[in-house]
Amino acid sequence: MTEQNNNAAAQEETTQFALQRIYVKDLSFEAPKSPEIFREDWSPNIELDLSTSQRVLDGEFHEVVLTVTVTAKSGEDIAFIAEVQQAGIFLIQGLDAGSKGHALGAFCPSLLFPYARETLDSLVVRGSFPALMLAPVNFDALYAQELQRMQASAEAQA
DSSP readout, the chain? Predict the structure, then answer.
């Protein structure tokens, strides 16, 4: 019994997940129709694009980058395009491949999203547009959909 407890304690000690740093990697804002766009009625169509990428930095340290692109159109005209690459450095140690994939593909982006949302709101307001107030995103569901898509693609190729 003591040996099992020691093994469980050793397992817990080697499993780590720690956020090391959050930062803006890239930031972009374009308002190609300003100042004319400010004279029009404001009822925009908002398009939101999300993507993530990750890479190993050193040993157990990983960089995860969440790219959020917002395009606002007023009629056929693009009012603005705002994009942020919100990044973080994470220490991930002792997780099996499935858990590590989930952490990098869903958990880390969900930690980064509130920072990206705040950065985009600030950027858009500085461009003299109303704040976006983007709704929360379920990265677990997006990750599950991506796994299903990859599995279906692999089965189709086989």
Answer: -HHHHHHHHHHHHH-EEEEEEEEEEEEEEE-TTTTGGGGS---PEEEEEEEEEEEEEETTEEEEEEEEEEEEEETTEEEEEEEEEEEEEEEEES--HHHHHHIIIIIHHHHHHHHHHHHHHHHHHHTTS----PPP--HHHHHHHHHHHHHHHHHHH-
Residue 6, domain member (yes or no): no
Torsion angle of the four alpha carbons 48, 133, 144, 66, in this order, in degrees rounded to the nearest 10: 70
Across the 158 residues of the chain, what is the mean pLDDT of every consecutive 10-residue run?
56 82 98 93 94 94 98 94 98 94 96 98 96 94 91 82
- Asked whether residue 39 is assigned to any structural domain, the reply reads yes
- CA 43 – CA 32 distance, rounded (Å): 17
Number of domains in the chain: 1
CATH number at residue 83: 3.10.420.10
Q: What is the pTM of this model?
A: 0.86
